[in-house]
Please model this.
Amino acid sequence: MFSYSRKNNAIIFQTAISYLKGVGPSRAQILGKELGIFTYGDLANFFPNRYIDRTRFYKIKELQPNSSEVQLIGMISGLRTVKQKRGSRLVAQFTDDSGQMELVWFRGAKWIKDSIKGNVPYVIFGKVTHFNGVFNMPHPEMELLSEYKKGFKTAMQPVYRSTELLTNKGVSNRVMQKMVQQLYFEAKGKFGETLSQKIIDQQQLISKNEAMFSIHFPQSQEQLTKARYRLKFEELFFIQLQLIVKNLTNKTKNKGYVFDRVGDHFHTFYKNHLPFELTNAQKMVLKEIRKDLNTGAQMNRLLQGDVGSGKTIVAVLTMLIAIDNGFQSALIAPTEILASQHFKAVEELLLPLGINVRLLTGSSTAAQRRVIHQELESGSLHIIIGTHALFEDKVIFKNLGLAIIDEQHRFGVAQRAKMWMKNDLPPHILVMTATPIPRTLAMSVYGDLDISVIDELPPGRKMIKTIHRFDNNRLAVFKFLRDEIVKGRQVYIVYPLIQESEQLDYKDLMDGYESISREFPLPDFRISIVHGKMKSADKEYEMQRFVKGETQIMVATTVIEVGVNVPNASVMIIESAERFGLSQLHQLRGRVGRGADQSYCILMSGQKLSKEAKTRLQTMVSTNDGFKIAEVDLKLRGPGDLMGTQQSGVLNLKIADIVHDADLLYKARKAAREVAYSNLGHTDPAYAHVWQTFESILKNKSLWANIS
Ligand code: ADP
Ligand code: MG
Model:
């Protein structure tokens, strides 16, 4: 019997919207085109943007200049067209027993003229403005009083998103409301429950039916809150369930090599050559990784750790485990500079173990490549470090067991997948990122990856002092620089690089370079410059001069953003700091504070700052904590912008919002984990209903397709 009623529901919600009383083919067409509403179900799931109180009626004499939205009852008369500079406007008198005002339309005049009736009372609603001593209401919502009386009366009336075309075609908010009302006359009570009773009880949710009604026609604020809570929970829950199930099936499907030996290389290195004691966070992450490598499933782990938190050593130790188990490793970095830094660091660390490590980048010579290709195929090369050159098909491994990808946000998912094909079973994947992602976001976007976090910096790190200075303080800043350089420190001066105006940015950089050269002349001062227009050999040469301490000032664009490690550099000056995003500012700041000395970050900006730019700079000044910064960034930019378009599917939420509904997201994830883990075979009857919904979501690619 139950399945019979479900089938019925499905049919009613699939009904084309043109069958709804009061819609018809031409409106149906506009609704589809403008709002994506094609069926009854689409309309039911077209939730209001906000709600307004329409129980109160005003008299014209009560109106105040700057009244907000008001509702009045009166007659409309005296329609006339008034010519203005461009086009014309339509004006009408509106009269009640207390006075007169004007109604004004700048668009849609024809439809208004044709439809307005004289000598009958209307209910009008809108914002009033006060102009030349007369109150007027532009583009009022209008409805015959007699019609108004037929509708649901509630203190909270839904306001729906609209478009200009809809307004011009007479599909006002009132019309939308009436359509939804009509829908509910026909469909009320027919929303199939999407969750299991067990979850509804546990989470104290209202039913789907009640929620779907109250979201459109709440009888009170409290009821609205409950409806929103229920629908948000459901949305987040099913997204989490999808991610968790995907992760679990990946683990059963993607068999991986078993690294069950922790052998000589690892132990020897750990005991005799580790240059420092690992932090607790590093130890913990290593434990998580070792566990992954031993399960027989492919590891897919994201390692998040702020700049300087010590991810490299974790990578090195993981590669040693691979070697101990007879496998090769690849470490991939997004830039040549970074790849060669990794190479040098790793080579030096592993020198005492006699491990063969090589570097492959775009600028490797043909001869070098030949050796590398040959050694990779014979298996005598244990560790290859490089740029995306490693993704190329001609790079063939004897036995690749581990791919570590540094700075994940520079590589696409497709590139990551390329590494999978380089052995019979996919190698274990460790993705390292220094761009902390707020937990809520990571859960939504990387829910199918396992996540480790290094949330602790190595001991003895000094806080980087960050200050904000305006351009007219430049002389004082230069003096400070000179003092630091005289003390033996090195400094970075970074200029923005924004693609659209590359030419201009280049000019800024060169102007800056010239004035710095004047201010810091030879022979006392030596300056390096690195920018995107240079050949990579030249870049590398300049970079090396700075790394070796031959130059004290590094003038650069953001090419140095990622990973570069010069412990003696203790001052970071960021020019036009207002043009950088928060995460980029934080990344840049992370280039200093790597040595024993007190480090500084100076954010230079013009006087005129947008509100957002101010928030960014203030945030940088007030905290060094990358996760806090990421939270602010998420609030400023929203999840879509933060992650780029590739992830927008997961983030394209209809009613929930991962910034404001973080608590609910945790709850939803917990509930989803319980369902997924206790019940992967879909056998527990308590969750049968959830799995039914789940299957239908997979089939329809949307929770809101409403075939629930
Ligand atoms: P990131 O996470 O930014 O890649 P790195 O791995 O480059 O950080 O480490 C930053 C610096 O901290 C390096 O100089 C490294 O040698 C040092 N370091 C890493 N771990 C520790 C530790 N546990 N104790 C002391 N220094 C450490
Ligand atoms: Mg690093």
In short: The first strand starts at residue 50 and ends at 52.
